[in-house]
Amino acid sequence: MHYSGLRLLREALTGNRGWKPAWRDPVPRREYDVIIIGGGGHGLATAYYLAKVHGITNVAVVERGPIGLGNTGRNTTIVRSNYLLPQNHNFFEWSLKLWEGLEQDINFNAMVSQRGVLNLFHNEGGRNAAARRGNAMRLDGIDAELLDREQVRAMCPLVDVDNGRFPVMGALLQRRGGTARHDAVAWGFARAADARGVDIIQHCEVLGIDVVDGRVRGVQTSRGPIRANKIGLAVAGNTSRLAQMAGVDVPIESHVLQAFVSEAVKPLVDQVITFGAGHFYVSQSDKGGLVFGGGLDGWNTYAQRGNLPVVDHVWAAGIALIPALSRLRGLRQWGGVMDMSFDGSPIISTTPVAGLYMTAGWCYGGFKATPGSGWCHAWTIANDAPHKLNEAHRLDRFRTGHLLDERGNGPFPWLQ
User: Fold this and answer.
1) What's the pLDDT score for residue 299?
2) What is the DSSP string of 205-249?
3) Domain range holding 205?
4) What does the alpha-carbon distance between residue 199 and residue 182 come to, in Å, rounded to a whole number?
5) 153 and 197 inside one domain
6) Are both 160 and 270 inside the same structural domain?
7) How far apart (Å, rounded) are the C-alpha atoms in residues 26 and 8?
8) Shared domain check, 239 and 271
9) Starting at the edge strand that comes first in sequence, how are the strands of the sheet with 215-221 ordered?
10) Are 223 and 329 found together in one domain?
11) Which of 5, 107, 132, 289 could cross-link 261 (Cys pair, CB 3.0–4.6 Å)?
12) pLDDT digit string, tens, across residues 58-71
């Protein structure tokens, strides 16, 4: 079924009796060419691009619960490509280009809104770092603008640029950045993958990965064994757990990251604004709620809940940046399990076990990478080798020392 305005009008006039389920609920087959473990955005995008780009349609996506309820549904919906290192900004720029054509590609309204992303700075060191990042981006043809104090004031009148502790001196702006609707992204990729023959198997927990003579042969699940010679992991904070089922140790720590949304208000924040000094970022959803977040809770956990000190810190940072937030009530809070790599950059790679692949280590950047991650992961699975875009993101870089330390924090995942 093709979605369109005409279709919507026709269904409205005929009692909405013609709509069909967006994807099937198939019974697992005994064998597939490829199994993708993880039914979030990255896993569903991988399956879609395997089918669309590489013609591999005998694919199963297995998810232990309903699709899209992991980190795909637990983030702040930001999309951007404003990274410093060429290996990272070129990858995320490809992902951003996929975002720009995604809705037409998958015939689904993902509510992509290129409203602009501002990274504020507060001193000369911050200005120099922003200029360096922006120049690195522009050298590779990626849009970046350096704004001064008055330009920030004009663009974001609610921001307290004269803050006593953190006066705003300017910002790095990427106008093509913005937001997308996270659950719609999962639903859209699921529908598009299903239309190309991919089986999306929900409520199917992976209990083990079969490895024979150094090669994967299938998985053991709560719904029985399923054979496959290629398996892709797209399970975010549970990557280390699943990889260990195949005997692979991954340099990842799992931490919880909290996010928040306020009560709905009239339009206040037209862009995505990040406040580096307070580690705070905010945008406004289409429902009117202000969506914002901060840093990690700081300890290893698989729990999707946080703690009150971080709540206090995030709200305080937000009020320091935008004093008007002090008059809003918090509506809800949630936590996602971040798979923090030791250099802060992702892993899209083959592994020491033949036929086992992964997209992991996304730290704070998982949602914005969704289409790019799926595209590169699919390429790596189909060709048993990375694409140029993810060649530097191999798992073995931690053994060879070719790290991608975007923030210069060293091998400390909780600081990335």
Assistant:
1) 87
2) -EEEEEEETTEEEEEEETTEEEE-SEEEE--GGGHHHHHHHTT--
3) 20-77+182-251+343-415
4) 21
5) no
6) yes
7) 27
8) no
9) 206-212, 215-221, 224-227
10) no
11) 289
12) 999 999 999 999 99
Of 36, 405, 377, give the one whose Cα is nearest residue 199. 36
Q: 94 in a domain, yes or no?
A: no
Residue 214: Cβ within 10 Å count: 11
Amino acid at 409: N
Task: Give the torsion sign (CA, 73, 41, 110, 194).
Answer: negative
Rg (CA), the chain: 21
Class of residue 393 by CB neighbours under 10 A (exposed 0-12, middle 13-18, buried 19+): buried
Burial readout 150-189 (b: 16 or more C-beta within 10 A, e: otherwise)? eebeebbeebbbebeebebbbbbbbebbbbbbbbbbbbbb
- Residue 172 to residues 127, 160, 235, 326, Cα–Cα distance (Å): 9, 17, 32, 26
Among candidate residues 340, 358, 390, the one where a domain is terminated: 340
107 lies in a domain? no
User: In the predicted model, is pLDDT for residue 113 greater than 90?
Assistant: yes
CB-CB contact of 10 with 18 (8 Å): yes
Q: Which pair of structure tokens corresponds to residue 125?
A: 């060191």
CA angle at 248 for the pair 242 and 254, rounded to the nearest 5°: 50
Q: Using an 8 Å Cβ cutoff, are 318 and 274 in contact?
A: no
- Please indicate, yes or no, whether residues 257 and 314 belong to a single structural domain of this protein: yes
Reported as a single tens digit per residue, the pLDDT across 310-331 is 999 999 999 999 999 999 999 9
CA distance 302 to 251: 16
User: Which CATH number goes with the domain that contains 224?
Assistant: 3.50.50.60
The dihedrals phi and psi of 212, each to the nearest 5 degrees, come to -125, 125
- For tokens 């949602």, name the residue: 367
DSSP-derived pairing of the beta strands 356-360 and 230-233: parallel
Residues 192 and 163 in one domain: no
- Exposure letters 278-289 (e unless 16+ CB within 10 A, then b): bebbbbbbeeeb
Q: How far is CA 212 from CA 236, 313, 343, 357, 391, in A?
A: 25, 49, 32, 16, 27
Residues 232, 309, single domain; the answer is no
Q: Does the predicted TM-score (pTM) go above 0.85?
A: yes
410 has pLDDT over 90: no
Number of folded domains that form the chain: 2
